[in-house]
Amino acid sequence: ELAMSGVQPQFTQWVKMLTDPALSEAGRDAVLSDAMLGYLQFVSAIGANGNNWLYSNIPYKLGLPPTAVINQWQLAVRQARTLSYVNSLAPQHPQYAKMHQALRDMLADNRPWPQVGSGPSLRPGQMSNDIPALREILTRTGMLAAS
């Protein structure tokens, strides 16, 4: 999700590396460790830096998460609780689960998306050749009930 969001291009690079079938097991471990450190930094500091990180055109600077956070991760690994630890890092906002499912549904939809022209804004009652495409987009994203 962070790779798709574009807030830090390094997440996209990590996904590209991890999807490379030529990546060795040791290489995969190193990339996953780096990505986890990046994610831990993100979740540790998003509360304080969210407005800058999420709404800026300039990616935020990657750094290490706080030592206490790294220690929690290492403890979870040593105690064989890695899955529950990673799951605990998911956003707790009530809308997150809905957004996550909608994103999964959209990614699973392999049909081509209709194109809407870049003409002027439409106002209620106006006619446009783009209305069928707009209707399909709104229906497929769940914003309009199928008729």
From TrEMBL:
Domain (L,D-transpeptidase scaffold) ranges: 3-103
Entries under InterPro entries matching the protein: LD-transpeptidase_YkuD-like, LD_TPept_scaffold_dom
Signal sequence region: none
Organismal lineage: Bacteria, Pseudomonadati, Pseudomonadota, Gammaproteobacteria, Enterobacterales
Entry protein name: L,D-transpeptidase
PANTHER family found in the cross-reference section: L,D-TRANSPEPTIDASE HI_1667-RELATED (PTHR41533), L,D-TRANSPEPTIDASE YCBB-RELATED (PTHR41533:SF1)
